[in-house]
Amino acid sequence: MAYKPLDAKTAVDYLKGRAAVKDILPPNEEYIANELGDGNLNLLFIVTSRTNPEHTVVVKQALPYLRVAGDSWPLTLDRIVFETEALLLYNELVPGLVPRVYDHDYEMSLVVMENLRHHEVMRKALVRHKRFPKFAEHISTFMANTLFFTSDMYLSSIDKKQLQEKFINPHLRKLQEDFVFTNPFMDSPENNWNPLINDLAREVRSNAELKASIVRLKEAYMAHAQALIHSDLHTGSIMLNREDTRVIDPEFAFMGPIAFDVAALLENLILNYASQFVHIPNPDERRDYQEYLLDTIRETWDSFASKFSRLWIENNSGDLMPSKYWDFPGGDRAFTQFRHRYIQDLLRDMGGFGGVKMLRRMLGIVSVWDITSISDPTKRALAERFVISMGKRWILESPSINSVEDLIAIVREEGAKINA
Ligand code: ADP
Ligand code: MG
User: Fold this and answer.
1) Whether residue 198 has its Cβ less than 6 Å from ligand 1
2) 60 — phi, psi (to 5°)?
3) In 3D, which of 388, 394, 392 has the Cα closest to residue 363?
4) 3-state secondary structure 215-263
5) pLDDT in tens, 348-364
6) Which of 14, 134, 135, 224 could disulfide-pair with 220, CB 3.0 to 4.6 Å?
7) How far is the CA of 251 from the centre of ligand 2 (A)?
8) How confident is the model at residue 354, as a pLDDT?
9) CA-to-CA distance for 213 and 371, rounded, in angstroms?
């Protein structure tokens, strides 16, 4: 079937003709489709039986342009292929941590998946100060497994290259390269920032040391094909409840630097931390919630690092370094040291990427609800100034940090300067 954007009516008719969804959507029932309006890039329909709420799916269809920018900004339709292929692989590597995929149709540029109707988008929940006791455990497993099992430590050299070929994803990568690493740091018409932080925007854009660090990180993003990364793993790409966590929306997936995924996640927890200076007026309550966010950051990093390391010890089957390579007196120790150093480097890259992403959210085209939901520009500037100080320090100081506590210490130091 040739590409045609669906609407609420045609979505139902379309699904009736798909054999792959007959079990989940029995043909003898009547269905209604609702379009969800909150995506940036794509069309999303929830299709549900009128008689049985369990008989429900989500249809995600790519549009030939960037939805938030209108049809003036063309985008390739094949991004749904990258999203679907990543979801299928994730379903193998981390079943239960992503929505199930029921069907896909690349001509129509769409995927049909599990409707996560008992989950909510994490970003919105954090703005309302909700807590998720199992989240760090779940997301660290997601990251450790998806990143380790697609790396050269696990895959054969040939398999790794084939994965690279499959996830080449040039157009969406270009979007991230421009909108994360470049345009926010120079004059570019789509940049959008609070005029009350003009002084900081100017300072960041003309800080030579900072800009040299950012371009180094950009090169790592462009060239360091370590593993299949989600590449947009912020709190808006996570749906969850107290018991269950799912990662959605991997349309930007490609073979990139491992630390970028961890950075995206922790950076968004910092943005939420910043927004709470305004969202929670009571200082005790605020401190309590901000400490919860820092605990989540610490636990996520520590669990990720130890799970990644354990997977490596137990599955060192890739062509990077066969076990025999370490087969010499003192070899075990050398391998252990190498692993520690590798993970230390991931932590440092993570701080750098996290810092760049903080700055771009304050100065570039796409902001986040945590911050934009602060309607008073003066109060918003207070949170934004905190984020910019944090971002600069994470970028400049990360090359010399030794533990996640060093990154957390920067948050506390900058937080102590805030007079909210
Ligand atoms: P986009 O790539 O266009 O930003 P997303 O994949 O982020 O689209 O989805 C947009 C919104 O649709 C999400 O914020 C969430 O509210 C909802 N959504 C996405 N996938 C599902 C799902 N599997 N089940 C329920 N809701 C979903
Ligand atoms: Mg998306």
Assistant:
1) no
2) -115, 125
3) 388
4) HHHHHHHHHCCCEEECCCCCHHHEEECCCCEEECCCCCCEEECCHHHHH
5) 999 999 999 999 999 99
6) 224
7) 6
8) 98
9) 25
**d(CA 95, ligand 2 centre) in Å:** 21
Return the CATH fold of 120-415: Aminoglycoside 3'-phosphotransferase; Chain: A, domain 2 (3.90.1200)
Cα(140) to ligand 1 centroid in Å equals 21
User: Which amino acid residue places its CA nearest to atom 6 of ligand 1?
Assistant: 249
- The closest alpha carbon to 176, from 230, 126, 140, 239, belongs to 230
C-beta of residue 156 within 8 angstroms of C-beta of residue 318:
yes
CA atoms within 13 A on the CB side of 50: 7
Would you state the CATH architecture of domain 8-114? 2-Layer Sandwich (3.30)
Q: Do residues 408 and 298 lie in contact, with contact meaning Cβ atoms separated by under 8 Å? A: yes
| pLDDT of 343 above 70 | yes
Q: What is the pLDDT of residues 386-407, one digit of tens each?
A: 999 999 999 999 999 999 999 9
Ligand 1 midpoint to CA 258 (Å): 24
Q: At residue 230, what is the residue type? A: H
pLDDT tens for 69-106 read 666 677 888 999 999 999 999 999 999 999 999 999 99
In short, whether 121's Cβ falls inside 6 Å of ligand 1 is yes
- Picking from 274, 263, 287, 277, the residue whose alpha carbon sits closest to that of residue 347 is 263
Q: What's the half-sphere exposure (Cβ side, CA atoms, 13 Å) at 43?
A: 24
Q: Report CA-CA distances (Å) from 306 to 228, 299, 312, 317.
A: 19, 10, 10, 18
Q: Which residue ranges make up each domain of the chain?
A: 8-114, 120-415
For residue 115, the ligand 1 atom closest to its alpha carbon is 24
Alpha-carbon distances, residue 23 vs 19, 49, 59 (angstroms) = 9, 13, 16
Listed in order, strand segments (DSSP E) in 128-240 are: 227-229, 238-240
Contact 208, 215 (CB under 8 A): no
CA distances, 195 to each of 38, 170, 217 (Å): 26, 34, 27
339 Cβ contact partners less than 8 Å away, ≥ 6 residues apart: 309, 312, 313
DSSP H/E element including 119: none
Name the residues around ion ligand 2, CB cutoff 5 A. 41, 249
pTM: 0.97
Tokens representing residue 201 in the block: 């925007």
What is the rounded distance in angstroms from the CA atom of residue 58 to the CA atom of residue 99? 10
